[in-house]
Amino acid sequence: NAGVTQTPKFQVLKTGQSMTLQCAQDMNHEYMSWYRQDPGMGLRLIHYSVGAGITDQGEVPNGYNVSRSTTEDFPLRLLSAAPSQTSVYFCASSYMGQVNEQYFGPGTRLTVT
Amino acid sequence: KQEVTQIPAALSVPEGENLVLNCSFTDSAIYNLQWFRQDPGKGLTSLLLIQSSQREQTSGRLNASLDKSSGRSTLYIAASQPGDSATYLCAVGRSGSSNTGKLIFGQGTTLQVKP
Q1: CA of B30: which chain A residue's CA is closest?
Q2: 25-64 in A: which are within 8 Å (CB) of B?
Q3: Is residue A101 over pLDDT 90?
């Protein structure tokens, strides 16, 4: 199993550009989520999904869109990048249920200039 | 609102020492608690998951305990090694009839183990 994979590893955008961060998992996990990690702020939940076709907002959803058309993939779209979105983005997945140990991808380091 | 705090923010110890990392949370109605390790510039690696009905979990030199009544968890690392140097994060899963897996993270303890 590849686990949770994320692409790209690094990205530089100009303010106003849009892009999609890719996330995929091969563990047949129902639950997938996106976090951003910022110095002094820790990890904060952006969006999450409990299954294909179902998404919901987390703590910091503004400026981001998600969709979940398959169990395996959960892309995160930045609609119009802003410098405040400079961060490291992590995707995570787990089974639903009591033993829902979460697995994280390697992260995407995004810089918006 | 659930808040998770980790103290200290940084810790430096000589090799071989046993050490304890602390995690506290404000709402005891948690579903589970997970400890992670993060190396610089890397992703999060799951170390231990404690369900709300459990009091502790062990993996090798690591032992994590959970006391919901006091809102605390500790991660005990025995016989520390330089390779243990990393940031350790605890995260609390919310309680509820339908667990959506959302985690609330502490800000981490950065551990340095000196040879």
Answers
A1: A98
A2: 31, 33, 35, 40-45, 48, 50, 56, 58
A3: no
